[in-house]
Amino acid sequence: MKEKFSMGARFFLISIMAFNILFLTADNNIVSAVLIEIEREFNVNTADIGLMSLFFTIIGGVVSIVWGYMSDKVDRKKLFALSILTAEIPCALTYFSPNFTVFFIFRILTGIGVGAAFPIVFSLIGDIFDKRGRPLAAAILTTCWGLGGLMGAMVAGYSVGAGLGWRLPFVLIAVPNFVFIALFYFISPEIPKGASEDALKELIARGLRYKGIIRVRDYVRLAKIKTNLLLFIQGLAGNLPWGALFLLIKFLETEKGFDKNTATTIFGILGAGSALGSVIGGAIGGKLFMKKPSYQPLFSGISTITGAFLTISILYFIPRDFVLVSIAGFFGAMWVSFTGANIRSMLISVNRPEDRGAIFSIFNLTDSVGAGVGQYFAGTLAVMIGITHALGVSLGFWVPCGIIIVVVALFFGSEVAKLDKQMEEEAAKMQSSA
To answer: How far apart are CA 32 and CA 42, in angstroms?
Structure first.
């Protein structure tokens, strides 16, 4: 088992998964860069696109509940491959949409695949890396989640700017993942459940099997873990602003007066800040966790609150200047993104190996509801009170999100210790049965 699940194999696996996630999440943000063109061609408004985005995220989130439960029952390689194909096939077919109804259907199908992949990815991370490596591993995949959205928007924005139209980007983004998912499926090693738990890994390396399984009734137990419950609630508030940012390129065009290419470039700079923030935040959060677990949620909550004010400054206080808008956007996005990887790492740290697929499916649902409501909420507000104030109100939800994460610090350390004790008890059972 040691040779089969070596450190080299771990890093190879996360590298392939990173590319899978990069192109999978690029699907999400294509629409944000071509919003004006789609509205014009299909004769719809921003509220219509917001409603479509709401269905995209929430239906995907509901599907992820099923996928999360099945990740403890079925080969995760097969589930992950199926989720990627479920997303990318309709994404590529979006090119042929003759009307908004067909376009709507293809986007919903893509959202199902995106939602299904999420719980599997972070369930795998919990078994690939131990508690010292998880924050950085989660940061890498969280960064790819952000970079994918950035890549989708930029490919779409520049394609339109070059006169290639809004349809081609859906094909350009979908096709590479057919190659990467084949690599993942045929080359990745077996990933034993519980293989990276400190108390279990030596036993599993010797060939013993961790026998914990998730049951439907266990979902009640998961909700009783205070860290889980609070992080679900913060996901509703914290993802509403991310959903609303699908309006950002249109805001930069219509309110700030930038052309399509310049607006896309600024969006890319914000995305780069967000990606860098995920990596830096994950690294800092991991070190803080090893010093004292409660420091990780404290750091995450405070950075979310301060990042909110930096990002809102773009709307109201920064003049129409490419350099100033880019600098404020870069640092605001970086600061608020310190949180993402740490949230995922914290969930892994308080949940048993068999529970992680389930817990991330619930987390994805709350995130999806937050993002979907954010898109619909911001799109509707934009029609009612204007795009600037719609974004301002939406980004303000990062403040209560940060406050909730700070409260997590009161419970996180004791719940980490409780899981460690449970794993030691499971190790004793495995040894006695052997």
So the answer is: 15
